[in-house]
C-alpha cells in the first residue's frame, strides 16, 4: 500500500455514515442490526478525535493487515503443508460457480456439485476428508455449521468476489478457531481497503441458463476512512433436471486505518432458493442400462409417474418432481474487527461476530399416515398426501482475539475465542389431504440444539539461526453440546455432553540455502461427534483423535519451484459409516479403533518463458481402516402373505479396507500461455482416481476414475474512457467426458424365509455436466 492517500471532506463522510445508519436502523424489529451501526459509530468517534491526518507508513499498514490473521495462518517457514490463492488468481474463473469449484486445482482437493454445473450445493474434500472435517474461518471467525460441522457455500454465493486471498492448510495445520481441522483448514481473508476509489461490474452467462451479475464499489482511503460494497445475483437451471438455483448476496465493509489502528465493520449475507437434487441418480439410469432400470423399478415399486421419470430422464434424472421441492435459506453475518499496534514489538486484535440464519426445505410426500406426524391422534391410521417444511432458525455468536509479541528471533502468539450457537429445529405441515382436519402450519416436531466452544492457544516461532527455525503450538478446547425436544422422526432427544481437548503441535524447518529447505512437524487434533452422531446413535460415540506427521521439502527459484510433502495421519476412534441404521432406518456412524491416511503431495511449476509456464500437482496416497464390521440388514418374508418374518443385522468383518471417497491418486495441472501482454490462455486438467462409496473396498460399490479438462481464456485492455475492460471465457469438460464425482450406496437382503439369495445393492451417483461454458465481461472504473 502506498503512503499517499486520497482526501474527501468530512461532509461526504458524515453523509455516508448517515445513510448506512438509516439502512440498518430501519429494519423493523431487528434490534441486532444495531451491531454494524455501533461499529460505524466507533468509526465516527475516531474521525472526530483525529485532529491531524497521520501520514501513512506503508510498512506499518502492512503490519496491521497481518495482525488480523497472522495468528492462525502459516508462513513460508512454518513446517506445515499449505497453499495460498489470491483474488487475482481467481479472477479469470470467477464467473458464478461456487467457491469449492474454484479451488479444484489446489493439491489433494476433490470437488463436487449436486446440480452438476458448479452452482448450488457444492462440496470439497481434502486428502479424502469431507467438508465436516475441514475447518473454515472468515477473517478468523468460524464458519462451519456448529451442529453438522459442515460448510454450506450456497448460503454465500459470489463470496469470492469479496475475498482478498485464501490459505488452505492440509492436515491438522496450525491452531485455529472453531471446529477441529481433521483433514484441512481453509482460512479466508476478505477485501483489503483499496487505496483509490473504484467501481467494478461483472456480467457472465453460460450453459444451463447460468448467469451472474454483480457490482462492486469502493471509496478508496479518504482521511483514513474507506468503504467497500458488493451486490450479486446468480441464477442457473442446473445440469440435473429442475436443479435450479436463485442466489443473491451482498457485502458491505466500512473501516478506519492509520499507522497504528485498524477498525473494520463488515456485513455480508446471502439468500438462496435451490431446487433439491440431493437424492442422486440410480446407477442404471446413469449408465443408460435399460435392463438395470427395469430391475430397479421391479424391486422399488415406484408410481407410474416415477417409473416414467426413471425410464425417460437419462443421466440428468432428478427424483424430485414437485414444483416447489426447494431449499430456501437466508444467512447474514455481522463482523467487527479492531487491530492495534501498541509498539514495534506488540500488537493485538479482537473480533466480534453475530450470524443470523433462518430457512427451510419444502417437501411433497404422498401416502403418509397421520400417525407419522401426530402419533397420539385417534385417527393415526388415516392416510393422505402432505406438503411439509422443515425449518432451521439459528443464531451464532463469536468473539476471537489474538496478541502478537515479536522481539529479536522470537515471535509469540496468544489467541483463542468463544462462540455460542442456538439452533431451533421444527417442522410444519402447510397442506395435507388427510380426511380429518389438521390446522394449517401445524408444528409436528420441535427441538433445540445449543453448542458452546471455547479455545485458547499459544504459539511460538523461534529463529534459532540463519539455518534453523522452530515452531511450537498448544491449544486447549472445551466444547459443550445440548439438545432436547422431539426430532423430525418423532423421537425424543436428550443430549448433554461436554469435551475437553488438548491439541499440541511442534515442528522445525531447516534452510539448506537460498533456494532449498526441509521441514518436519507433528500435530494432534481431537474432534467431538456431530449432532447426528449424538442424537441418532443408540450407543454414545467417542470423540475422535488424530496424530498428523508431516515431512516436506521446498525448492523455490526465480523461474521454477517444487515441493514434496510426506504425510501420515493416524486416527483413533474415527467415526465412519458401517452400514448400521438407527431406529428409523437412517445410516449412523460408528467408531473404528484404527485407521490412517498416508501419502505424498508433489507440486512443481516452471516458467519456460515470459509467455509460457506450467504448474502441476499430484497426490499419491493410501487411506485405510485396519478393521471394522460392516452391517447389512436381512429382511425375510413369508412368500404367501409377504409379511416380514425375520429382520436382523448381519455383520461381516473387514480388514485393511479403503476409506470411502479417498482416491489413491489426485492430480491437476495448468498450462498457461500469454501470446500478448493482456491475453492469457489456460489449459486446465484434473485427474481423480477410483473412489469407493463405502468402506468395504468392493469394486461394485465404487466410482470410476475420471480425467477432465477445461479451457480458460482472459483478455484485458485499457481504453481511454475506462480503467479496464476484461473478457473471460471458461469451457469446462472440453472433451465431453461423462463422469460422476459423488454418490452413496446401501445394501440389504429382501428374500423369502430360508432363501440364500444375495444381498441387493443400490448405488446412487451425482453426474457432472458434459461440455459447458461460461463467458463474462468485467468493467473496472
UniProtKB/TrEMBL annotation:
Compartments where located: Cell outer membrane
SUPFAM superfamilies to which the protein is assigned, alphabetical: Porins
Domain of life: Bacteria
Major localization class: membrane
UniProt cross-references to InterPro entries, sorted A to Z: Beta-barrel_TonB, Beta-barrel_TonB_sf, Plug_dom, Plug_dom_sf, TonB-dep_rcpt-like
Alphabetical UniProt keywords: Cell outer membrane, Ion transport, Iron, Iron transport, Membrane, Receptor, Signal, TonB box, Transmembrane, Transmembrane beta strand, Transport
TonB-dependent receptor plug domain mapped to chain residues: 75-184
Keyword DNA repair: no
Topology in membrane: Multi-pass membrane protein
Residue ranges annotated for the TonB-dependent receptor-like beta-barrel domain, each copy included: 309-734
Family indicated by similarity: Belongs to the TonB-dependent receptor family.
Name recorded for this polypeptide: TonB-dependent receptor
Organism: Mariniflexile aquimaris
Amino acid at each position: 500500500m502506498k503512503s499517499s492517500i486520497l482526501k474527501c471532506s468530512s461532509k461526504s463522510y458524515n453523509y455516508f455514515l448517515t445513510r448506512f445508519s438509516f439502512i440498518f436502523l430501519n429494519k423493523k424489529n431487528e434490534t441486532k442490526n444495531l451491531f454494524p451501526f455501533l461499529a460505524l459509530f466507533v468509526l465516527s468517534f475516531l474521525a472526530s478525535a483525529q485532529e491531524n491526518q497521520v501520514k501513512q507508513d506503508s510498512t506499518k499498514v502492512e503490519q496491521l493487515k497481518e495482525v488480523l490473521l497472522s495468528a492462525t495462518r502459516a508462513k513460508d517457514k512454518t513446517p506445515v503443508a499449505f497453499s495460498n490463492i489470491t483474488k487475482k488468481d481467481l479472477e479469470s474463473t470467477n464467473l458464478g460457480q461456487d467457491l469449492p469449484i474454484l479451488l479444484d486445482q489446489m493439491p489433494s482437493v476433490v470437488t463436487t456439485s449436486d446440480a452438476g454445473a458448479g452452482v448450488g450445493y457444492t462440496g470439497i474434500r481434502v486428502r479424502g476428508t469431507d467438508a465436516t472435517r475441514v475447518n473454515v474461518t472468515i477473517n478468523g471467525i468460524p464458519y462451519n455449521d456448529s451442529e453438522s460441522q459442515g460448510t454450506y457455500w450456497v448460503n454465500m454465493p459470489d463470496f469470492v468476489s469479496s475475498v482478498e486471498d485464501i490459505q488452505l492448510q492440509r492436515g491438522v495445520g496450525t491452531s485455529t478457531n472453531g471446529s477441529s481441522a481433521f483433514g484441512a483448514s481453509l482460512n479466508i481473508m476478505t477485501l483489503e481497503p483499496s487505496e483509490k476509489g473504484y467501481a467494478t461490474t461483472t456480467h457472465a452467462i453460460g450453459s444451463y441458463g447460468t448467469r451472474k451479475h454483480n457490482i462492486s464499489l469502493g471509496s478508496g482511503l479518504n482521511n483514513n476512512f474507506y468503504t467497500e460494497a458488493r451486490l450479486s445475483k446468480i441464477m442457473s437451471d442446473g445440469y440435473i433436471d429442475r436443479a435450479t438455483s436463485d442466489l443473491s448476496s451482498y457485502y458491505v465493509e466500512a473501516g478506519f486505518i492509520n499507522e497504528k489502528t485498524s477498525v473494520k465493520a463488515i456485513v455480508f449475507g446471502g439468500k438462496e432458493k435451490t431446487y433439491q437434487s440431493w437424492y442422486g441418480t440410480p446407477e442404471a439410469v446413469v449408465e443408460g442400462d435399460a435392463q438395470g432400470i427395469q430391475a430397479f423399478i421391479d424391486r422399488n415399486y415406484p408410481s407410474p409417474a416415477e417409473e416414467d421419470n426413471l425410464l425417460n430422464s437419462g443421466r440428468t434424472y432428478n427424483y424430485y418432481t414437485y414444483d416447489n421441492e426447494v431449499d430456501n435459506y437466508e444467512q447474514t453475518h455481522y463482523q467487527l474487527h479492531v487491530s492495534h499496534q501498541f509498539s514495534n514489538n506488540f500488537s493485538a486484535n479482537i473480533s466480534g461476530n453475530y450470524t443470523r440464519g433462518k430457512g427451510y426445505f419444502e417437501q411433497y410426500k404422498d401416502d403418509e399416515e397421520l400417525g407419522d406426524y401426530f402419533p397420539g391422534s385417534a385417527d393415526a391410521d388415516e392416510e393422505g398426501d402432505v406438503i411439509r417444511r422443515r425449518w432451521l432458525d439459528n443464531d451464532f455468536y463469536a468473539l476471537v482475539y489474538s496478541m502478537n509479541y515479536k522481539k529479536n528471533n522470537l515471535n509469540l502468539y496468544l489467541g483463542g475465542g468463544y462462540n455460542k450457537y442456538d439452533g431451533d429445529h421444527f417442522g410444519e405441515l402447510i397442506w395435507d389431504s388427510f380426511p380429518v382436519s389438521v390446522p394449517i402450519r401445524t408444528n409436528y416436531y420441535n427441538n433445540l440444539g445449543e453448542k458452546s466452544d471455547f479455545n485458547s492457544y499459544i504459539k511460538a516461532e523461534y529463529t534459532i539461526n540463519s539455518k534453523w527455525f522452530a515452531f511450537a503450538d498448544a491449544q486447549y478446547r472445551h466444547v459443550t453440546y445440548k439438545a432436547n425436544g422431539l426430532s423430525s422422526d418423532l423421537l425424543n432427544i436428550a443430549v448433554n455432553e461436554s469435551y475437553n481437548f488438548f491439541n499440541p503441535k511442534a515442528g522445525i524447518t531447516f534452510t539448506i540455502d537460498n533456494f532449498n529447505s526441509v521441514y518436519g512437524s507433528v500435530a494432534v487434533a481431537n474432534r467431538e461427534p456431530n449432532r447426528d452422531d449424538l442424537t441418532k446413535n443408540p450407543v454414545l460415540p467417542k470423540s475422535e483423535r488424530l496424530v498428523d506427521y508431516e515431512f516436506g521439502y521446498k525448492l523455490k527459484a526465480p523461474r521454477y519451484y517444487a515441493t514434496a510433502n510426506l504425510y501420515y495421519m493416524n486416527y483413533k476412534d474415527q467415526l465412519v459409516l458401517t452400514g448400521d441404521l438407527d431406529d428409523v432406518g437412517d445410516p449412523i456412524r460408528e467408531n473404528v479403533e484404527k485407521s490412517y491416511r498416508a501419502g505424498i503431495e508433489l507440486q512443481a511449476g516452471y516458467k519456460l518463458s515470459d509467455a509460457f509456464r506450467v504448474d502441476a500437482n499430484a497426490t499419491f496416497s493410501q487411506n485405510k481402516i485396519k478393521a471394522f464390521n460392516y452391517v447389512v440388514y436381512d429382511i425375510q418374508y413369508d412368500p404367501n402373505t409377504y409379511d416380514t418374518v425375520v429382520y436382523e443385522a448381519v455383520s461381516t468383518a473387514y480388514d485393511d479396507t479403503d476409506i470411502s471417497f479417498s482416491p489413491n491418486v489426485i492430480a491437476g495441472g495448468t498450462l498457461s500461455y500469454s501470446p500478448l501482454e493482456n491475453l492469457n490462455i489456460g489449459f486446465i486438467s484434473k485427474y481423480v482416481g477410483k473412489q469407493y462409496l463405502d468402506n468395504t473396498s468392493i469394486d461394485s460399490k465404487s466410482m470410476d476414475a475420471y480425467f477432465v479438462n477445461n479451457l480458460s481464456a482472459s483478455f484485458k485492455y485499457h481504453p481511454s474512457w475506462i480503467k479496464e475492460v476484461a473478457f473471460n471465457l471458461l469451457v469446462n469438460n472440453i472433451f465431453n467426458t461423462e463422469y460422476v464425482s459423488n454418490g452413496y450406496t446401501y445394501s440389504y437382503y429382501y428374500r423369502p424365509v430360508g432363501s440364500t439369495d444375495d444381498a441387493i445393492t443400490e448405488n446412487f451417483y451425482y453426474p457432472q455436466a458434459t461440455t459447458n461454458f461460461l463467458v463474462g465481461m468485467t468493467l473496472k472504473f
